[in-house]
Amino acid sequence: MTTLRPPAYIVWSTDQIDLSDPFQHRWYIQQVLTHGRAEDLRTLKLEEIAAVLDDILLPEDVRDLWQRFLEKRHAQG
Fold first, then answer.
1. Angle CA 51–74–21, to nearest 5
2. C-alpha closest to that of 29 among 47, 13, 52
3. pLDDT of amino acid 74
4. pTM above 0.85?
5. Helix axes 60-76, 22-35, angle to 10 degrees
6. Whole-number Å distance between alpha carbons of 6 and 17
7. Could you tell me which residues come within 8 angstroms of residue 3 by beta carbon, excluding any fewer than 6 positions away?
8. Rounded CA gap, 12 and 21, in Å?
């Protein structure tokens, strides 16, 4: 079990997340993309974001930003 204690400004409903649980891992990525700061975003792997982007709930502008960013990064190789 990989347990994480996220900052309250990202996750306020619990004090720890089990990142080995796929549901909790996707949910945590969703929370970081929506509420995280730059230092929090740096902890995520771009491959993980790309893998779950279509499966998580994000504000439209946040989703669009990440889709464009990942597409541009992929095109650059």
1. 15
2. 52
3. 84
4. yes
5. 100
6. 7
7. 16, 17, 18, 19
8. 19
Task: Tell me which amino acid residue 35 is.
Answer: H
- Per-residue pLDDT of 13-67, as tens digits, reads 999 999 999 999 999 999 999 999 999 999 999 999 999 999 999 999 999 999 9
Report the 3 state secondary structure along 5-19.
Answer: CCCCCCCCCCCCEEC
Q: How confident is the model at residue 76 (pLDDT cuts 50, 70, 90)?
A: confident
For 65, the token pair is 């930003």
What number of residues does the chain have? Answer: 77
Give the DSSP H or E segment for 3: strand 3-4
